[in-house]
Amino acid sequence: MDFTARKRKSLRLIPNNSNSQYSLDLSMYNIPPIGETSLEEFETLAIERLQLMRVLEQAASKGHKINSEEWKKCIKEDLNKLDLKKFVRLMNGLDGQTELDINARRADHLSHFILRLAYCRSEELRRWFINRELEWFRLRFMVQNQTTLNRFFESNKLIYSPISDPEKNAIFNELLMSTFNMSDVNIKSSNFFKVPFSEVCSLIRSRRVFVKLGYAYIPTNELIVCVQAKFRANLSEALNVANHRLPSLDDDRINTFLLNLNHSYTGKDYTSPSSERKEMDIADLDLHSKKHYPLCMRHIHETLRATHHLKHKCRLQYGLFLKGIGLTLEDAMDFWREEFTKLMDHNKFEKDYAYNIKHAYGKAGGMVNYSPYSCMKIIMDSVGAGDHHGCPFKHWDSHLMKQKLMDYGVSTEGSI
Question: How far apart are CA 365 and CA 356, in angstroms?
C-alpha cells in the first residue's frame, strides 16, 4: 500500500484494475488490495469494518454461544440495523460474480487491510482484532458449499484430500467412538481427512477426534479448525510485520485517523435526514441546548450567545448540527443574522456570511446537501488557540472539562 503522496485525493494501492482478486467469497487476506480508493472511502470502510467487529463482539456478550444459530441471527439483525448489507450478503454466501458481489468482497478485503494498520500497534489491539477476524472467517466458512470451498483451498494452496473408503472402513469403529456427534450413518456418508495432529489441538483437547500415528482423522465440518489455525498464524505474522512498517506510513491524512480508530464512535448515525424529524423552532434553542445538546454543541451555542460571533470551522460544525436537528434555512438565516448583527451591520452579514449558510443547505455553490458532522469527524478535526469547535473530551484539558461539568451541575464524584 502506497500512501506517500500527501496531496492526492485518492490513496494508491497496487496499480491493477482486475476484479479476479474478488472472485471468491473467502479470503486468507494474503494479497494486498489493488486499485485506488478515495480518502473518504478509506475512512468509511474502516468505520464499517469496525462496526462489524463490534457487532461480533457484542453478539457473544449478549449470552449467545459462538457459532450457534442464535448468535448468527443476532449478528445479522445488528448488521441490518446498521445498514451494513454488504456484510450480510457475505454472511449468506454469495458464490456469484455480479457487481454487488464483487463490491461486497472488495469492501471486505480493503477494510480488513485498513484495520490491520490501526490494530497492529499493540499486543492488546492485535489480540482483539485477531479474535474478531477469526469469528468473521468462521462465520463465512461455514456457509460455503463444497465447490466454493474447493476453489478456496486451491487458490490458497491448501491441500485436503479425503481418505479412501477402504481406509475409512478399516478405522470405522475408532471413528465412531472418537468423532464428536457422528453416528454410523453420518460416518458412512461423510468425507474424512487425515491431517497432522498439531493442526487440530483444540479437537484433541476436547476429545472430539480420532488420532493415530501422529495424524488426526476429521470430518468435513471440522476442516475449519485446520484452516482457522493457518489463518490465525498468517494474520498474527502479518500484524507484526505491519507494526514494524508503521514508521514508513508517512501520510498525515490517515495517521491520526488510524491512531484513534479504536476509540471511534460507531453507534447509530444521526447525520442522515429523517422524514420523522420535526422542524426546530429557534425560540427553543436555548432550552434544548441545556437539556439535550451534546457537550460540544452546548459549548458552541453558549459561546455564540456570549460573543455573537464564531470562527469559520466552528460555524460549520454548529450550523450543520442545527440543520440536522431540524432548523430550516429560513430560520437558520434569522438565527445567525440576529446574533451577528449585534456586532456588525446587516450589509456586512449578507455580504460575508449569508452565502455560507445557504451553501451548507445546498442552496448555493455546488448545491450539495451537506450532512452534519459525525462524532469521528469532530474528534479528528484540528483545533487551535481561540477555537471553540471540536470534541471537548478530545481537545479540552482535564481541568477545563471538570470545571465545565461542575458548572452544568454534574456530580464531582469520580475523576476525569
Answer: 9
Place of cell 469521528: 376
pLDDT tens sequence across 378-394: 887 788 888 899 999 88
pLDDT at 238 over 70: yes
Q: Which residues contact 394 (CB under 8 A, 6 or more apart)?
A: 379
- Residues forming a β-bridge with 412: none
* CA gap 241, 235 in Å, rounded: 10
Question: Percentage of residues in the chain with pLDDT exceeding 70?
Answer: 90
Q: How far apart are CA 377 and CA 394, in angstroms?
A: 12
Can you tell me whether residue 162 is helix, strand or coil?
A: strand
Q: Per-residue DSSP letters for 183-249?
A: -HHHHHHS-EEEEEGGGGHHHHHTT-SEEETTEEEEEGGGHHHHHHHHHHHHHHHHHHHHHHHGGG-
Q: 199: closest CA among 215, 188, 221?
A: 215
Q: What is the mean pLDDT of the chain?
A: 86
Contacts of 164 (CB under 8 A, 6+ apart): none
10: left (phi over 0), alpha (psi -120 to 50) or beta: beta
Three-class secondary structure of residue 11 per DSSP? strand
Question: Distance between CA atoms of 411 and 414, rounded to whole angstroms?
Answer: 8
Nearest to 117 by CA among 260, 293, 294, 306: 260
Distance between CA 8 and CA 312 in Å, rounded?
24
- Give the CA-trace dihedral at 99, 105, 106, 108, to 10 degrees: 140
What separation, in Å, do the N-terminal and C-terminal C-alpha atoms of the chain show?
Answer: 39
Q: How many residues does the chain have?
A: 416
Question: What span, in angstroms and rounded, lies between the C-alpha atoms of 163 and 154?
Answer: 18
Residue 73's CB is within 10 A of a number of other CB atoms, namely: 12
- Determine the pLDDT at residue 214: 93
Specify whether the CB–CB gap between 383 and 395 falls below 8 A. Answer: yes
Question: Which one-letter amino acid corresponds to residue 412?
Answer: T
